[in-house]
């Protein structure tokens, strides 16, 4: 028992943690309640299922903090990044994947690893003995959530996360829509035409906003409060902040030329990104929603090109639970009140697939080292991993703590570099060069 690592949750973080620890030679038991206990957001029983978007965001490791995190995970033999790369889809400069093939491949590796054993079934209470990582994510089961709340007192820390709808490609009117990545980004023609674009005139946009604001929305239960993460706001919430908000957000028309009407610039553009290898499914980018199903179909069919759209999945909304990690976790990701328990993934207060998997990678390595009697320091602050874990375990203000994506604002400044937008390219390159050197040095010590 003492030399075995137990992991609760087979999502992105739990799968990565299990793989990292198993590769280090530790015996791992991965506990997953699905498919015996289902959630409304998950579609199947595979590990590392992507329930919201199919994108790991930017893959640019020189100018983007997310891309840098990709690079660091690849250098650390990260399973999630390896499988994402194998099953990537054209998406301009982003790393988007065929979500079903991706999850299936992760599941195959996990299930066939000689050092990993799978136990199906729900864990309803925090374990009192042994070495554990809790990586239950935003959909932590009610019973285990209550146990965590009882131990931490953090029973009010939750926000709501929304899911975007998916459309069948053959139902899109291509006499209206066209294929183009913003600013023709990408090295190949396939990458440069990775997105479906649906243009709107000013009148169409205004009518769409009116319908969006008037549509029936999901109601919250008594005692629940809608504290959304800004990176995943429902489109209705964005529209409520101002009629032009969507046009300067997910519906911005810049960098696009309508091949059907190149002389006239669209007032707003709805983009759809490929969701599977066959190209039969596309998700509506940035269109997370809390509208009721009937209203979604009515409103989304107002989008030019989607008048007769068929939906493989409609949007939804779910509760997303996270810890106040700056007060509860130490720099090894252990619960201060019960150091035999580590937490990883979104429940620690990171936001996004990449960040969740990254925290799983760290938790798996840190736990494996401790079990083997080794001392493994947390990653240096100058690395992307180090910046992120430092933020959630002490760098953030506990009083206002909210889920955080990795970003260069978490990095220590580089002396002698110009600030502002004009100096951004050189500054970001300096951040990434410094981070890569720090990360390679940390890996060599592990």
TrEMBL record:
Residues 5-374 form the MnmG N-terminal domain. The lineage of its organism: Bacteria, Pseudomonadati, Pseudomonadota, Alphaproteobacteria, Rhodobacterales. One of its GO terms (cellular component) is cytosol. It is an enzyme of class 2 (transferase). Its main location: cytoplasm. It holds the Pfam family GIDA. The keyword NADP applies. FAD binds at residues 9-14. Keywords: Cytoplasm, FAD, Flavoprotein, Methyltransferase, NAD, NADP, Transferase, tRNA processing. Belongs to the MnmG family. TrmFO subfamily. GO terms for biological process: tRNA methylation; tRNA wobble uridine modification. InterPro entries: FAD/NAD-bd_sf, MnmG-rel, MnmG_N, TrmFO. GO terms for molecular function: flavin adenine dinucleotide binding; tRNA (uracil(54)-C5)-methyltransferase activity, 5,10-methylenetetrahydrofolate-dependent. It comes from the Bacteria. This is Methylenetetrahydrofolate--tRNA-(uracil-5-)-methyltransferase TrmFO. It is found in: Cytoplasm. Transmembrane segments: none annotated. It catalyses: uridine(54) in tRNA + (6R)-5,10-methylene-5,6,7,8-tetrahydrofolate + NADH + H(+) = 5-methyluridine(54) in tRNA + (6S)-5,6,7,8-tetrahydrofolate + NAD(+); uridine(54) in tRNA + (6R)-5,10-methylene-5,6,7,8-tetrahydrofolate + NADPH + H(+) = 5-methyluridine(54) in tRNA + (6S)-5,6,7,8-tetrahydrofolate + NADP(+).
